[in-house]
Amino acid sequence: MPDESVSPDGDKPPESLTSVAGVIVAAGSGERLGADRPKAMIEVAGRPLWRWAVDAMREGGCERIIVVTPPEWVAVVAAADPDAMVVPGGDSRQESVGLGLAALAAEPPQYVLVHDAARGLTPAAVVGRVVASVRDGNVAVTPVVPVADTIRQFSDDTSHLLDRHKLCAVQTPQGFVFDVLTRAHAKATAKGLVATDDVTLAERAGQPVTLVDGDALAFKITTRTDLALAQLLAGGD
C-alpha cells in the first residue's frame, strides 16, 4: 500500500540529527504459548525471537537498539548483545514502550521505531520502508497488509459485513519522529488512555498516520500454532 499522508511540517532535519533508534518490546509473558519462559526468549531456528527482531532492525537501518525485557532477563540479554541497551519492562506493553523511550531521553534520536519481538520474522525490508518513510517527513508510520478473511462486525445479537478491501491489518515496527511519540505517550499517560499500538496514541494526539507495505512474514507469534509456523518458515525443527 502506498503512503497515504505526509506530515505538514515534514522538513528534513540537519544530517547530524538523523539518527534512528529502535525499541524492541520483549517483556511479554507469552502465557498463551504455555512455555517455560517469556515469549521473546523462545528460540526459533536456534535464535530467540528478540534476536531475530534486533537483527532485522539493525539491517533495516536502526543505528541504536533498546531491548525492553522482563526484569529477570535483563542481564541475560545484555550479555548476549553488548551493543544493545537493555532495560526492564513494565506491566503492560504501553508501559514497556514508555520505559524504552525514557532510556533514550538522555541522548534522544531524531527518529524511533517500536517493534514487537513477537513479530520476530519481520523482514529487514519492512524496517527499511518504515525508516525511509519517517526520514521522508512522515511523523507516524506503520506497515500494514491487506485483510484476506471476510470480516463481520457484531453488536449484541446482530452483525454486518465490512468491506475487506477498505481494511488492513497493522504490523510493527512503527516509526515516529521521536518527540512526536514521546509527547503522545505523555498525553496518554496523563489522560489514562490505553492503546494496543503506538500509531494509535500518535493519532489520538492529533498526528497523521502514514501506511507502508508490510509483509506476511511479520505475523505475530501468539499461539503454539503460530510458533510451529515460525519454526517451519525459519527452517527450525
Structure description:
There is one protein chain. This protein has 237 residues and is an alpha/beta fold. The protein has one domain (18-234): Spore Coat Polysaccharide Biosynthesis Protein SpsA, Chain A (Alpha-Beta Complex), CATH 3.90.550.10. The protein contains 7 helices and 12 strands. The strands form 3 sheets. Strands 1, 4, 5, 6, 7, 10, 11 and 12 form an 8-stranded mixed beta sheet that branches. Strands 2-3 form a two-stranded antiparallel sheet. It has a two-stranded antiparallel ribbon with strand order 8-9. β2 and β3 form a beta hairpin. α5 packs across α6 (198-204). The longest helix has 14 residues, at 178-191. It is globular. The chain starts with 19 loop residues before the first strand and ends with a helix.
Strands, helices and their partners?
Layout: E1 20-25, E2 43-44, E3 47-48, H1 49-60, E4 64-69, H2 74-80, E5 85-88, H3 93-104, E6 111-116, H4 124-135, E7 140-146, E8 151-155, E9 158-162, E10 168-170, E11 174-177, H5 178-191, H6 198-204, E12 210-213, H7 224-234
Parallel strand pairs: 1-4, 1-6, 4-5, 7-12
Antiparallel strand pairs: 2-3, 6-11, 7-10, 7-11, 8-9
For CATH, the homologous superfamily is named as Spore Coat Polysaccharide Biosynthesis Protein SpsA, Chain A
Protein structure class:
alpha/beta
CATH class designation: Alpha Beta
What is the CA–CA distance across the termini?
A: 34 Å
What's the gyration radius in Å? 18 Å
The number of strands is 12
Write down the secondary-structure element order: EEEHEHEHEHEEEEEHHEH
Strand content: 15-25%
The number of domains is 1
What's the CATH topology name?
Spore Coat Polysaccharide Biosynthesis Protein SpsA, Chain A
Output mean pLDDT: 91
Q: What can be said about the biggest beta sheet?
A: 8 strands, mixed
Low-confidence stretches: 1-10, 12-17
User: Tally the helices: what do you get?
Assistant: 7
Shape: globular
| Helical content band | 25-40%
From the 3D coordinates, which CATH architecture would you assign? Alpha-Beta Complex
Classify the oligomer.
single chain
